[in-house]
Amino acid sequence: MPPDITTILIFVPIAFLGAFVYGVTGFGAGLITIPLASHFYDVPFVLAVFALLDGVNAVRITLSQPRAVVREEALRLIPCSVIGVTCGVVLLLVLPARVMMLALGAFVLLFGIYSLFNARALPVIGMRWAYVAGLSGGITSAMFGAGGPPYAIYLSMRPHGKAAMRATLAVTSLVSVATRIVAFALTGLLSSPQVWLTALPMIPAALLALWVAERVHQVLSREAVLRVIRLLLCVSGLSLVYRAVS
Known about the structure:
Elements: H1 5-25, H2 29-37, H3 43-64, H4 71-94, H5 97-117, H6 129-144, H7 148-156, H8 162-187, H9 193-199, H10 202-219, H11 222-245
Helix pairs in contact: 1-2, 1-3, 1-8, 1-10, 2-3, 3-8, 3-9, 3-10, 4-6, 4-8, 5-11, 6-7, 6-8, 7-8, 7-11
């Protein structure tokens, strides 16, 4: 049965907002879309629908500027992310996810606040930290659907331009999203036609949002993009803390 008009009217603006944020920064769509949509529908359904949309967003941004991807960073981040996803699935079975989510949310929130007010004091870190960022991002992606913050924290402290940051974030998150889609398919979350029929009308809205975000991204300076990322880290930290305690 196709989705009703109310579902479409709720999901399309949420999809637009999430895709716009993703288009500007290269991460963070799920931290916007999942909490908002979960107020209206069951979390498994929301996760499945927006996993498909996240895949569209990630492919679109990755293909828009493939030469902007910093290969040295991606070659370190992506394998560690895949390992992290595997570890995260195991940790889900043995650790209290609520406590882990609260700890992650508090860390991301505090780092976001600190970086907003002490941007000039942040050091440029070495590439070896990519292994830590990739592993932790994979773990948090599997456990909480929030792999972006560790990647964003790492890349924001590397000496790359705004296009390189966004493209590398996008290609790294593409791997996380693809892994998540495979996992959802194996567990049956994507077997319902309702999921696909709900995601389909959201794609034009997401593509339009990415087009608008591309124009916004072009006029923003590197410092402005970093400020947006830091603000988004604060929002994502608050979202994780809220999900942990609610």
